[in-house]
Design a protein that fits this description.
This protein has 114 residues and is mainly α. The protein contains 5 helices and no strands. The chain starts with a helix and ends with a helix.
């Protein structure tokens, strides 16, 4: 999200470089829909679990034949549908995108010498 916010408000490379300085760079708060984590990996968990309780099945959402994968896919389909329905109704991400662009344009106009 931060990369998107910077990309939509950067006028030149100096602005982009400024984003990595210790000074704060103001950006709008992103809608929660943009924070959806598509996939989690549990390799470290599975390794530790194997040493402590090998009877518990691994969490492996990348193996399409595993029970975990199907549960993850069902959950993901439900969440994505909800996110898309909400975006269709409220247009939060579209509004955020417009605010980013408008804020950038407005700030540049204010900073122009008179």
């Amino acid at each position: 999200m931060i990369a998107y916010a910077i990309r939509t408000t950067v006028e030149n490379n100096n602005d982009f470089d400024q984003a990595f300085l210790s000074e704060s760079t103001p950006i709008s708060t992103a809608p929660a829909q943009g924070l959806f984590l598509d996939m989690s990996f549990y390799d470290t968990y599975n390794e530790r679990k194997e040493r402590t309780n090998s009877l518990v099945p691994d969490l492996d959402w990348t193996n399409e034949e595993s029970e975990s994968f199907q549960r993850w896919k069902d959950m993901k389909d439900c969440i994505v549908k909800h996110i898309m329905d909400e975006e269709h109704q409220s247009m939060n991400f579209v509004k955020f995108s417009c605010e980013q662009q408008r804020g950038f344009t407005h700030n540049n106009v204010e900073q122009q010498p008179k």
